[in-house]
Here is the input.
Amino acid sequence: MYKPDNPLVVQGDRTLLLEATHNKFAPARDFLSSFAELEKSPEYIHSYKLTPISIWNAVAGGMSADEIISGLQQYSKFDIPQNIAHEVIDYADRYGKIKLISRDEGLFLKIDDRAVMAEITSQERLAKYLQQVVSPSEISINPQMRGQLKQALVKINYPVEDLAGYAEGQPLFINLRSTTLSGSPFALREYQRQSIAAYYLQGSARGGNGVIVLPCGAGKTVVGMGVMAEIQAYTLIISTGIVAVRQWIRELLDKTDLTQDLIGEYTGERKEIKPVTITTYQMLTWRKQRSSKFVHMELFNKHEWGLIIYDEVHLLPAPVFRATTELQSRRRLGLTATLVREDGCEDDVFSLIGPKRYDAPWSDLERQGYIAAARCYEIRVAMNDELRLKYAVADKRRKFRLAAENDAKIPIVQQLLQKHKPDRILVIGQYLKQLKKIAAEIEAPIITGKTPTHTREDFYQRFREGEITVLVVSKVANFAIDLPEASVAIQVSGTYGSRQEEAQRLGRLLRPTTDQKQAKFYTLVSRDSTEQEFAMNRQLFLTEQGYRYYILAAGDLGILEEYN
Here is the structure.
């Protein structure tokens, strides 16, 4: 049946095509994003893909195959292909087909489907994880291999529902304050309470693992503290850098009844192991040389942790994945603004940290005033004749860098700074030579990976207080930096087509300002270059969240108000 008033076309190859200008676009987009992955977002047609992981995450969050299929039928112009309905049912049915359970005698895979049981026991790659078949529906497993087995099973499209429970860890009494140290009223927002409940599931074995997805500025740290207050146990928190570690410490002291003597910083500057210990991914993966051991990985075993929190879980490096395979008896919480991983390891996050438990649409939180409204612009800048000639003969990698470091971007930065003179502005980029040149031209301080921690913190504090109104920052500022006063970001270069980086950089602006000012996010790209091509990929995630990019030529800056 043909329904011309609908915005969606469902194709047999699992591709979903959505009309971006249709009046049903917004509700259809929100529906699709709950179980499909955005792949392309040109101006008129957005394309999504159904994948096993996207469907398993939806099912783990309580969505059924029937809901997915009926929703597709509701928005589709045509009857959906029969194979799509069958594949959705098949993938959804696989979640929970294999359960991991615990008894006094040990750990067991419980498989009620005889055909699946036969398939699993016949797989040579799984033999080293399995011990013996103890009944027609149960196989005992090596408890030390709990994580590796889950990883291996998800690779053959059998996601395990882990119901084996957790070690409780050493108890630690933690309560959220009703008033912060500064005297401000404090309470969880409704979506924060919902996300904590979806993760904890009243303390049952079905909860206690997984990922909560919230926009930057929506209070992921507060959610982490709310989970800590539910679990009441020693907690290890892994974050992205020393500045983020200290931000966690400030937030814990401000919003919980934990005292300083209970919170430890485990970084290159301090080595404190306390009931709540906060470290970095860099610290855990440090070693003297490539062949040496990761000496700080022992931190995972220094205490009987009841909870491990992975901040910005999409950045989890491979060595920490390997360590996490041995920590499946601990409750695990991942916090992130995006589950996108540029290395394609989403299935490892799914199997080792857990499924997506909660995902709040950015547009909903913006509408409710919890995150700032934002407007995104891509400004295309011409290359001069000399640069075009260098670009023409360069290899692909060199082409990208030449385009990214286009000096013609500097006058555009200056024009934007002049336009937003009263605002606090971040100029963000990838290449240090470019950033240093821009910082010198605009006479602004610069923060890079080599900037000492105390200098970074000083610059950030002066920015918050308004003493500094423009900061030039490298990719060290992508993550976990609390700069609620920033309302404008100018991105001069980025990491190829990194969708996660685009989301994190916009996230620097999404903490609402006291005057409710609309945030502005400008991306400068060289016209007719590989940088322009990569920019389209970078924008995918934010487009899915409801943000629209306005494309302008450098000469169009004078008409920006028309887009506001």
